[in-house]
Design brief:
Helix 2 crosses helix 7 and helix 5 crosses helix 6. The longest helix has 20 residues. 32% of the residues lie in helices and 24% in strands. The chain is an alpha/beta fold and 374 residues long. It is elongated and about 75 Å long. Strand 6 and strand 7 form a beta hairpin.
Length: 374
């Protein structure tokens, strides 16, 4: 069993932990903006392929002391880098954290890089090149106090960038947060789903992928672990084939998205085409005031503007009031959720929330408000 660390958005650690357990992870322990877990190589590949709520999976290889730059350099040099990197391979170092002596991530990365290439030159007379855009090996270094944890990044580009969404509206949700909101709302594919302010379509698209049991990693060209020395290509192909074989041909219940802006709705339709959902989810151009419940019951999730990035609070008060009025008058039997980063606007909905979930949308502290519509 190998130890791994999944990085996640702040506040979503418990949701990511449950997802990792469902994927077969052992020893799952939520941490701050991450989850520690254990598993074999197949689990590492499976998590990258299937995880909907995490950013990346790190495989820790060594912890070294780093009270200062010299100690860090010597500690990195004691690691046998031949087992991970050959001179013909490119690599890159990404640093997070710091201490009083190592408080600039670029300088810290440079010390680690120098220690690795100096070892290569001493041993074989050649050294690897740095490639910050598309390296063969991506090394993560996290410094906390006088300790530096060095990990191999198995993912590469963050998992929230699914690959299906080149078209984005104003202030879009990350795909990982959209997937987490579906979990918080306890939405299951047998329930109708609606986002009446869908923008470029992230929420209905994530619901559609889940409803059809499509692995989000299927849209990726490549993962970082495919460049590793011990990469098991047959195992990876088997896991991908199993994912393809497990996809559903039709949604168990309908998924709807609507928006008043035809240009933004066009973006949503483009994104739906990119992930093969254009025939499965229904995207409609409609004013919020015109929307009717498409079924007798279901789940609504929406992410209206907060007044921080788009518009002003006074202008948005009418929108929040309209949301509350529309839900109360036309969606009896449904359960609605509104994500907001503004408490004052949340009060304008005019309905009593049955639950409040604290979450972060990027750096913005938000609340997911739940409304039971009777």
């Amino acid at each position: 069993m190998t130890h791994y660390f999944a990085t996640v958005a702040r506040g979503l650690e418990p949701i990511a932990a449950r997802e990792l357990e469902r994927l077969g992870a052992q020893g799952v322990e939520p941490d701050f903006t991450g989850v520690r877990f254990q598993g074999d190589r197949a689990l590492l590949y499976r998590v990258n392929l299937w995880a909907r709520t995490i950013f990346r999976v790190l495989a820790p290889i060594q912890e070294v002391k780093c009270a200062n730059a010299e100690q860090l350099y010597k500690g990195v040099q004691r690691i046998d880098w031949e087992q991970y990197l050959q001179p013909h391979n490119t690599f890159s170092v990404r640093c997070t954290g710091g201490n009083t002596k190592l408080n600039h991530t670029h300088f810290t990365a440079l010390q680690i890089k120098n220690a690795i290439v100096d070892q290569q030159r001493d041993r074989v007379g050649e050294r690897s090149s740095i490639d910050r855009e598309n390296p063969d090996l991506l090394l993560n270094a996290h410094i906390y106090q006088h300790r530096c944890i060095l990990s191999l990044d198995s993912t590469g580009e963050s998992l929230h960038r699914r690959g299906y969404r080149p078209a984005m509206g104003i202030a879009p949700l990350k795909e990982t947060l959209a997937a987490a909101l579906l979990e918080l709302a306890e939405w299951t594919p047998d329930l109708p789903f609606l986002d009446p302010l869908c923008g470029s379509g992230t929420l209905p698209l994530e619901a559609g992928l889940k409803g059809l049991n499509i692995a989000p990693g299927q849209f990726r060209d490549r993962f970082a672990f495919e460049n590793w020395v011990d990469f098991d290509a047959p195992l990876w192909q088997t896991l991908r084939q199993e994912a393809w074989d497990g996809e559903r041909e039709a949604l168990p219940a309908p998924i709807f998205g609507s928006d008043r802006d035809p240009k933004i709705l066009h973006q949503a339709r483009t994104n739906a085409q990119n992930c093969g959902l254009e025939k499965h989810i229904q995207l409609m151009e409609a004013e919020l005031s015109e929307i009717e419940a498409p079924r007798d019951c279901g789940i609504i999730i929406c992410n209206p503007p907060y007044g921080k990035r788009i518009g002003e609070i006074q202008e948005l008060s009418a929108l929040y009031k309209l949301l509350g009025d529309t839900f109360k008058q036309r969606f009896k039997g449904w359960t609605a959720y509104i994500l907001t980063g503004n408490k004052e606007l949340g009060k304008k909905v005019g309905l009593k929330a049955s639950r409040r979930f604290p979450v972060y949308n990027g750096s913005i502290p938000c609340t997911l408000l739940k409304y039971e519509l009777y």
